[in-house]
Amino acid sequence: MCGFGGYFGAGVDPADAGPLLKRMGSAIAHRGPDESGIAVLHDAGLCHTRLSIVGLADGQQPMSLDGGRLTIAFNGEIFNYVELREGLIARGHVFRTSSDTEVILHLFDEKGPDCLADLNGDFAFAIWDAPRRRMFIARDRMGVRPLFHTTVGNTLFFASEVKALLEVPGVEAEMDPIALDQIFTLWAPIAPRTAFKGIEELEPGHMMIVEEGGRTIRPYWSLSFPDSGEPSRHTDERAAAEELRALLTDATRLRMRADVPVGSYLSGGLDSSVISALASGMTPETLRTFSVAFDSAEHDESAFQNEVAAALGTLHATVRCGEGDIAAVFPDVIRFTERPILRTAPAPLFKLSALVRERGLKVVLTGEGADEVFAGYDIFKEARVRRFCARQPGSRIRPHLFRKLYPYLPGLKQQSAEYLAAFFGAGADLPEDPLFSHKPRIRATGAAKLFFSGDLREQLAGYDAAEDLASCLPETFSRWHPLHQAQYLESRFLLPGYILSSQGDRMAMAHGIEGRFPFLDHRLVEFAATLPPEMKLKGLVEKHILREATRDLLPETILRRTKQPYRAPDSQSFRGAGEKDYVRDAMSVEKLAAGGLFNPASVSKLFAKSRQQPLSGFRDNAAFVGILSSQLWLETFTGSRRRTVRAA
Amino acid sequence: MAESIKDQVRAFIIENFLFGDTSAQIDDDASLIENDVIDSTGVLELVAFIEERFGVTMADSEIVPANLDSLDRITAYVGSKTGKETSLNA
Question: Which of A193, A73, A192 lies closest to A136, judged by CA?
Answer without folding.
Answer: A73
